[in-house]
Amino acid sequence: MNQPWALIIPMANEEKDFDLFIIPLKEELAKLPQGKVFLIVDNVSVDKTLQLCKLLSSADPRFETVWAPENKNVVDAYLRGYKEAMKTNAKFIIEMDAGFSHDPAELPKFLNLLHQGYSCVYGSRLMEGGSMNDSTPYRKFLSKTGTILANLLLGTKLQDMTSGYQGFHRDIVSKFLNYKLKSVAHFYQTEIRYLLRKYKSIEIPINYKAPSPRVSKNAIKNSIKSLLYYFMRRLTLRPISI
Fold first, then answer.
1. Alpha-carbon torsion (56, 58, 60, 65), positive or negative
2. Which of 67, 85, 120, 180 has the fewest CB atoms within 10 Å, measured from its CB?
3. 3-state DSSP call for residue 14?
4. Given this model, what pLDDT does residue 214 score?
């Protein structure tokens, strides 16, 4: 695994658990050469997350802090991270969440499969070997129901359509960066999986922990609206792929 790669991580109000997350991430980076980490911070953070990220970046060149006050939502944070990663020579780009939602120890699994020729590697909490630890019954319901509805209405067949731990070849990233996504919140991962359904992909089990405590009504509305948009396009024989 000697190809350069990049990792993007939106960071929002992570002061409390900053070191607890960064220490195991550094341990993985030590095993995986040529990795670059982009920490995306915006106005959502009201604690010392930005300062901590800047201190880390100044001390460790493997980390780069991206201050993005123009972000309007979490999807903007992800996309800004991808844009920064694309400025490097990274062949593979992986997206993960902070706050222990995603385990840095699972990074090698994504890189191994990207090296093997898969264009898209998706983390799955719902397949055998995956889990949703510490998730409330409501969050589990939303994730499972979202996957069932997406597969039913969009014709996809993945076991988890809403997980955020995922990795891509850089040419795949360029494709969705040049497409205007409908999502502004939680439907983002589903939309990406649908749009990239024609590329060689694989799911791997991940252990998901400590999700955000709630999903806003606006996020749910945006998810339903976006899902229906792609369903109607498919229903009228005008499906979209990129």
1. positive
2. 180
3. coil
4. 64
